[in-house]
Here is the input.
Amino acid sequence: MADFDDELDASGLNCPLPILRAKKALNGLDAGKVLHIIATDPGSVKDFEAFAKQTGNELLESTEEGGKFHFYMKKV
Amino acid sequence: MDEKKLAIIATKGTLDWAYPPYILASTAAALGYEVEIFFTFYGLQLVRKDLSGLKVSPLGNPGMPMKMPFGPDWFKSINWNIPNIIQAGIPGYENVATALMKKTIENNGVATIPDLRDLCLEAEVKFIACQMTVDLFGFEHSDFIDDIEYAGAASFFDFAGESDICLYI
Here is the structure.
């Protein structure tokens, strides 16, 4: 598992809340810091890819483990 | 990265149709878009101070599955195919359907409309209410939230004309 600086548990939340919460959490981080996001919404896999592509933040890792999705997003 | 622009016209005033404009606006704002929503006709219901009047009507909507948000799985999986004539004849049917819909929304971890609207406002989505329909329906400005401007079609085009995406909902 990658290192991270802050964690956001968006388990149980549905579109678009994981993205909106992640955006808010990233706003509070300095550039270069990594946010670990946990989600259960299967749509979030494609959505975090799209979020990274459009905002310039870097999606370092996207994995699934026991029905939970883990994303590591590095703030640009 | 240049800031992209999203313009939305929100014309529908039911609980279900309140979602698309607010979901797309809040998400676009999170992606860095500048967003403006023009509320007109029944869409004005979405910017009232009190959102408790938003309802969902399954009547005449064959696309809407009617399932119960509680009970054992076999019960929840039943699609209650209630004929229109019965839906239309039962007093309070919309209230019951709305209560069930709100429970389903909660069960699915879907945001409420007041929450999504607050998220839009927090993200500086600009709200414009159509003054003509405010007058037409006999609304007062005091019926609506404070974070809104009143204007007409020309103002919409001022923003929409320069938008990258323009949606009519």
In short: DSSP finds seven helices and five strands in chain B. The mean pLDDT of chain B is 94. Chain B touches chain A at residues 1, 23, 26-27, 30-32, 108-111, 119 (CB under 8 Å). Helices of chain B lie at 19-30, 73-76, 84-89, 93-107, 113-122, 131-136, 153-160.
